[in-house]
Automatic annotation (TrEMBL):
Protein name, UniProt field: Glycosyltransferase
UniProt xrefs under InterPro entries: Glyco_trans_9 (IPR002201), WbsX (IPR032719)
Stretch list, region Disordered: 201-223
């Protein structure tokens, strides 16, 4: 039974400005957020069926708001849903929460927009009440139009018969969640079509202009024409072709980072597109002819038509007559031009690097596969294509299955319908039981994939599973290889090839021998451990110079969290400017030089910083990255840098994974934003970094993206986190990661013991007492000062003479350290700091890296580029100017220093 409504106030936390006069809100970025603390509002423990209603009225750029929930493990992309577009100033939906809720978050839009905002209302309800409320508007319509609803009821009954009651419950859930009977009807129709064809479940969305359109992935969607270039990719059918051409999307995103990219595809293949992070819109159509309509009505500023010229619509028999690209590439000539990716992109008139495809498998697909009861060790068979000349004898498939089972592996068959029959224990028929992406997940977990040359082979290429592919002559092509990436180079794949005829005429022995070889070359372990893209080898000689990387704080711009904690418009410049000295000769306040009190919202600031750094021998910046259970802080400068591709400066990230507290002003127990580590958040975090890893500026070590973690001691199981991250990186095509941990808070854990590659030292405030200044008398220290003062000369001697360690440790020389702006009379201060002493320390670290490491593992860090509130910065100031930058250039042998 439904309870009374509870009004919950919404607290803006990011990218939102309110006009008090008009009462309207404006989002000033693409990530506005509104927070609700349920426990503080007496609704802690909210669980079960809940009716949620948001009072929201858009004035400009209406969007579907997104709701996130925290059930104890923080906010994440796995716990979210899109709410309906507001109607009459309200957006309402029913949701079922399995676990008690602590907080809610509403992202009202994902672009710059203007709107009026009320409260978020919730009330507990029941499944029956939710279903009845959702169905009530359609009862009267059913009475007026019984024929339509009779047909719909017949479809629901058939869906129940084909796929069971669970599919009908999902349809009801679609109605409850979307409050849209049209979407429920489309959902049922789509699922029924899949069930009849043996394909399985798929996501369904609303219809728009001749096709179903999905908007998602966090970008600004459907901006008015002229605001953003709109690129339309057309490839509507044959899912192997679609998977093979996935690199086109990443190529276009790099070329046009701000464009809106849409992919037009047949509805039954849309799930391959829906989860791609670089695709803004999925436009689902019924056939190739619908794509011709989209081409002709001017919806796109740029068209990328990946179909070969002369392709004929299988439904309408209308041919495609292209006017752009290479018109000689047709169905009869395409493999003359290379693999599928090469042929289709040449035919579209674009040049795309020969890269392996990627598949983005959503968590729901993986969870579904978890429940299928797959055996521990298995080989996937795919036995049937869309061309008889490709298909092998079914008796041979059965014989091969028996041999594989005898070797200790189960056999899992996928496809539309099974072709292996009467096989004893060890054979599993999953034909027609999965969606496309669930089939891809089954392949990903397999020890080996064996199949005819067809779509699932492209899945295997995308997920990195070792494969045996049966291939022979096809039409006029005596030898061909349809794959890009590793498979195109015949790595991680064995072709059972018939050079004298079609694959259907292959003998048994060549295929069996190929499978035996595949199982004998490491396939006993799941192939998820095999990289999708082979790790790149160092291209420079082993005698390369060490790369110097400076830590960079992206803090110097106001954010709502800092406004709330320290006052409107706060940045650390406020503390820096008002700081004072506690003894004679203390350099406080420290005043910036040529860069001034800058604001990182201005892109020219970061470009000037990069020019200064590169001119003085600094290879790149390591930006501190602030991620809290799906919530990012201080992200505007980094997002701007990624989006604009400026400055042209190598970079990497260090996850500053502590709680965000008020420790600067002595209130360390007051948590502003909590950090709650869990496997789900670890997974969301690493996936969030994948677009940055694709950036050519991102710093790599032997081809592996470099990722640094500040506090590995805060992870419940850091080794498990490292393994999870590496597996995800391999699945996404990055090969592996190069993981570094900071030693400052946990100096006794070795990196290899937790699955990390190396550590780096941070000589800040955790120092032995013998490094303190011997005589404080001449300094005339204020009696109010209760902090610590160290002798920089002793620190340099200590760190230049540390004994070696039995693991990889990177050096990290410090500049001055004086955190008086943050901690006042409790500060830690380095005294006797000079550019000459710093240069000696840097030179020692630089030469040490040359002695201990080779190639791209030669790294040196420096703390820091711009930690002004801690007195540790390379940027010019009014006292020393560029003296520390010039000392850096001399230490690393940069031409400016020489």
């Amino acid at each position: 039974m439904s309870q009374v409504w509870m009004n919950l106030p919404l607290t803006p936390t990011n990218d939102l400005v309110k006009d008090e006069a008009s009462g309207t809100w404006t989002s000033v970025g693409d990530d506005p957020q509104l927070y609700v603390d349920l426990e503080a509002n007496g609704q802690g423990g909210l669980q079960g069926w809940v009716h949620v209603e948001l009072e929201l009225e858009f004035i400009e750029n209406a969007r579907r708001p997104q709701l996130f929930w925290d059930d104890g493990s923080g906010f994440s992309e796995s716990k979210t849903c899109l709410m309906p577009l507001p109607v009459g100033g309200r957006s309402s939906l029913f949701l079922f929460f399995h676990y008690p809720l602590r907080a809610l978050r509403v992202d009202p839009t994902n672009c710059e927009a203007k709107f009026r905002l009320g409260a978020l209302k919730v009330r507990r309800t029941s499944r029956v009440a939710a279903a009845a409320s959702a169905a009530r508007p359609y009862v009267r319509r059913a009475i007026k139009n019984p024929g339509l609803y009779w047909r719909f009821g017949r479809d629901v009954a058939e869906l129940w018969r084909l796929k069971g009651s669970h599919s009908v419950r999902l349809a009801v859930q679609e109605l409850i969640s979307t409050q849209s009977g049209a979407q429920m009807r489309q959902y049922v129709g789509t699922q029924l079509a899949f069930a009849r064809q043996g394909i399985g479940r798929s996501k369904s969305e609303s219809r728009s202009g001749g096709g179903a359109v999905t908007f998602g992935h966090g970008r600004m969607k459907s901006a008015g024409k002229g605001e953003r270039m709109h690129i339309g990719i057309g490839l509507v059918e044959h899912f192997g072709d679609i998977v093979a051409c996935e690199p086109v999307v990443r190529h276009l995103r790099k070329q046009y980072p701000d464009a809106e990219i849409s992919w037009v595809v047949r509805d039954i293949f849309r799930e391959l597109i829906d989860n791609h992070p670089e695709i803004d819109n999925t436009i689902a159509v019924d056939c190739l002819t619908d794509w011709l309509k989209w081409r002709s009505h001017g919806a796109f500023d740029k068209i990328v038509d990946l179909h070969v010229n002369g392709r004929i619509c299988q439904s309408c028999r209308i041919p495609l007559n292209k006017t752009e690209g290479d018109l000689t590439i047709t169905g009869d000539t395409h493999f003359v031009h290379g693999n599928l990716l090469q042929a289709m992109t040449k035919g579209a008139g674009i040049e795309v690097p020969d890269d392996a495809p990627r598949i983005y498998i959503p968590e729901v697909a993986r969870t579904t596969v978890d429940g299928l009861g797959l055996p521990e060790r298995y080989v996937v068979f795919h036995t049937k294509s869309n061309a008889d000349e490709k298909d092998w004898n079914f008796a041979n498939w059965k014989r091969l299955a028996l041999e594989v089972i005898e070797k200790g592996y189960d056999v899992v068959e996928i496809g539309l319908s099974p072709n292996i029959h009467d096989v004893p224990k060890g054979y599993h028929n999953f034909c027609g039981r999965t969606t496309l992406l669930e089939a891809a997940e089954i392949i990903r977990r397999a020890a080996l994939f064996v199949g005819v040359e067809s779509g699932p082979g492209h899945f295997a290429n995308a997920v990195g599973t070792r494969s045996v592919i049966l291939i022979g002559q096809l039409q006029r092509f005596k030898t061909y290889n349809p794959y890009s990436g590793d498979f195109g180079k015949e790595k991680n794949i064995i072709f059972a090839r018939n050079s004298d005829g079609p694959a259907a005429a292959l003998g048994y022995e060549p295929v069996r021998d190929a499978v035996v070889k595949g199982l004998g070359e490491g396939a006993a372990a799941p192939a998820a451990a095999i990289s999708v893209v082979e790790t790149a080898k160092p291209t420079a000689s082993q005698d390369v110079d060490p790369r110097l990387i400076a830590f960079y704080l992206p803090q110097y711009h106001p954010i709502p969290e800092n406004d709330h904690a320290w006052g409107k418009g706060f940045t650390e410049w406020r503390n820096v400017g008002k700081s004072g000295a506690f003894y004679e000769g203390q350099y406080q306040p420290r005043l910036p030089g040529e860069l001034g009190y800058y604001d990182l919202r201005l892109p020219e600031v970061m470009e000037h910083q990069a020019e200064l750094a590169k001119a003085h021998g600094i290879h790149g910046f390591c930006y501190y990255y602030y991620w809290f259970n799906g919530r990012r802080l201080l992200n505007k400068p980094l997002d701007q840098m990624l989006r604009s591709r400026k400055p042209d400066m190598p970079f990497c990230f260090c996850w500053a994974n502590e709680n965000w507290t008020r420790r600067w002003d002595g209130m360390s127990k007051e948590i502003i934003v909590p950090q709650n580590h869990c496997p789900e958040d670890d997974l969301a975090f690493i996936r969030n970094l994948f677009p940055a890893f694709e950036d050519p500026r991102y710093i790599r070590v032997d081809g592996k993206p470099l990722l640094i973690v500040y506090r590995t001691d805060l992870f419940p199981d850091p080794a498990m986190t490292a393994e999870l991250w590496r597996n995800e990186a391999r699945k996404a095509g990055f090969g592996d990661l190069y993981l570094l941990r900071c030693e400052s808070n946990d100096p006794f854990t070795t990196p290899d013991s937790i699955g990390f590659d190396a550590s780096y030292e941070v000589p800040t405030f955790i120092l032995p007492d013998e490094l303190k200044l011997d005589d404080l008398g001449p300094l005339k220290v204020s009696p109010d000062f209760v902090g610590r003062i160290f002798d920089y000369r002793k620190i340099v001697d200590y760190y230049c003479n540390r004994p070696p360690v039995p693991y990889k440790r990177y050096r990290d020389p410090m500049l001055a350290w004086d955190n008086t702006p943050r901690h006042g009379n409790r500060a830690t201060i380095y005294h006797n700091v000079t550019p000459e002493l710093y240069e000696r320390w840097m030179r020692d670290c630089y030469e040490d890296a040359r002695r201990k490491f080779v190639g791209e593992e030669r790294l040196v860090f420096v703390n820091a580029w711009n930690e002004w509130a801690e007195g540790s910065y390379l940027e010019p100031d009014l006292k020393f100017g560029r003296a520390y930058l010039e000392a850096t250039a001399r230490a690393v042998g940069h031409p400016l220093g020489r």
